[in-house]
Amino acid sequence: MRITKSIPNMFTLGNLYCGFLSIGFAANGEFNNAAILILIGMMLDSMDGRLARMLKADSSLGKELDSLADIVTFGVAPSFLVYYTYFFQFGLLGFIVAGLFPLFGAYRLARFNISSTKSSLHYFIGVPITAAGGILALLTLFGNYIPNIIISVVFTALCFLMVSRIRIPSLKEVPLPKYGTIVTLFIGCLLYVIYKGTYIKFPYLIYIAAPLYIAYLAYRFMKGKNKRDDLD
């Protein structure tokens, strides 16, 4: 029973470890691998909370651990990735600007954690840090086709959108898990195509993560469909 209740935390720790590995890959110049690991972190992040509810393993420890993992994987790791791929050319100023992203993300997470109402089924208050970090990872993957000015604008916009009071559609009523599902499923299907013909070592973890996540999506979709059929 204790092992079962630890499963969601294992996924959360896996998310955190993906963030750590992403920083390491970015420092070694393997930027695509670093971006892929952030996307794998999105997959794990979209699963841990639902697994906790399924296994009735919700805990204060798990919630705090999730926030700590998110700030590393979707705050610190993307900021390093953007710095090493673009902002490095501005020297110390670029390093300082890149560091703003995890600061805004941490504030957003803290504000969410102390919110009495949390998030509505229909919207989030401000862009979730998971989505913001995933967007930066995608921009890095396709960085060769995107002008640097666009990356700068999107980076700056995401910083302020995370701490804004703008209502962002949550897509929670879509019969698939969480807001990161569509992005991660789409990317998961295209990973091999994106990397085919490149000379960068592919992170073998994706061969495990992507099929498991797609199976999880299929299970959640069928479960939701069967539930609606029963109600009908």
TrEMBL record:
<feature type="transmembrane region" description="Helical">
    <location>
        <begin position="90"/>
        <end position="109"/>
    </location>
</feature>
<keyword id="KW-1208">Phospholipid metabolism</keyword>
<comment type="similarity">
    <text>Belongs to the CDP-alcohol phosphatidyltransferase class-I family.</text>
</comment>
<feature type="transmembrane region" description="Helical">
    <location>
        <begin position="201"/>
        <end position="219"/>
    </location>
</feature>
<feature type="transmembrane region" description="Helical">
    <location>
        <begin position="176"/>
        <end position="195"/>
    </location>
</feature>
<keyword id="KW-0594">Phospholipid biosynthesis</keyword>
<keyword id="KW-1133">Transmembrane helix</keyword>
<keyword id="KW-0443">Lipid metabolism</keyword>
<dbReference type="GO" id="GO:0003882">
    <property type="term" value="F:CDP-diacylglycerol-serine O-phosphatidyltransferase activity"/>
</dbReference>
<dbReference type="GO" id="GO:0012505">
    <property type="term" value="C:endomembrane system"/>
</dbReference>
<protein>
    <recommendedName>
        <fullName>CDP-diacylglycerol--serine O-phosphatidyltransferase</fullName>
        <ecNumber>2.7.8.8</ecNumber>
    </recommendedName>
</protein>
<feature type="transmembrane region" description="Helical">
    <location>
        <begin position="121"/>
        <end position="139"/>
    </location>
</feature>
<dbReference type="InterPro" id="IPR004533">
    <property type="entry name" value="CDP-diaglyc--ser_O-PTrfase"/>
</dbReference>
<keyword id="KW-0472">Membrane</keyword>
<dbReference type="InterPro" id="IPR000462">
    <property type="entry name" value="CDP-OH_P_trans"/>
</dbReference>
<keyword id="KW-0444">Lipid biosynthesis</keyword>
<dbReference type="GO" id="GO:0016020">
    <property type="term" value="C:membrane"/>
</dbReference>
<feature type="transmembrane region" description="Helical">
    <location>
        <begin position="145"/>
        <end position="164"/>
    </location>
</feature>
<keyword id="KW-0812">Transmembrane</keyword>
<dbReference type="Pfam" id="PF01066">
    <property type="entry name" value="CDP-OH_P_transf"/>
</dbReference>
<dbReference type="GO" id="GO:0008654">
    <property type="term" value="P:phospholipid biosynthetic process"/>
</dbReference>
<dbReference type="InterPro" id="IPR050324">
    <property type="entry name" value="CDP-alcohol_PTase-I"/>
</dbReference>
<keyword id="KW-0808">Transferase</keyword>
<feature type="transmembrane region" description="Helical">
    <location>
        <begin position="20"/>
        <end position="44"/>
    </location>
</feature>
<dbReference type="InterPro" id="IPR048254">
    <property type="entry name" value="CDP_ALCOHOL_P_TRANSF_CS"/>
</dbReference>
<dbReference type="InterPro" id="IPR043130">
    <property type="entry name" value="CDP-OH_PTrfase_TM_dom"/>
</dbReference>
